[in-house]
Amino acid sequence: MLYSLAITTLLLTCADHWTTYLCLRAPVAGWQVVEANPVVDLLFRLNGLVGGLVIDSAFTVFAVCFVLYTQRFGQRMKEGFFAFLVLTTGYAVVNNFQAISELGLSPLGLRG
User: Is the pTM of the predicted complex or chain greater than 0.85?
Assistant: First the structure.
């Protein structure tokens, strides 16, 4: 279960970063699209969208590996941590897909 949650966390993070990129890469006429997480918004402002996503991705992979292989936390705590990440990141992905739909963007990144 632990590895399934860790892999799900990484897959949802990829989906979150892709959908965030689609929503924020260019202005959409008639909309003001912003990053809701103030820490991530600061990361984007300091490093650009792509740079911020790369840093966030690297941090996420590091954190997942650390939690998976550290002896500091028990199995249940690790599973709880990953379950929390799956729920919160899954929520972000659903929210981003709703935004993509309302903005009329392609989830594949195709420009129409």
Answer: yes
What is the tally of structural domains in the chain?
1
Contact between 85 and 8 (Cβ < 8 Å): no
Residues 6+ apart with CB under 8 A from 48: none
pLDDT, one tens digit for every residue, the chain (112 residues): 999 999 999 999 999 999 999 999 998 888 999 999 999 999 999 999 999 999 999 999 999 999 999 999 999 999 999 999 999 999 999 999 999 999 999 898 876 6
In a domain, 55, yes or no: yes
Place of tokens 């820490």: 39
Residue 103 in contact with residue 37, Cβ under 8 Å? no
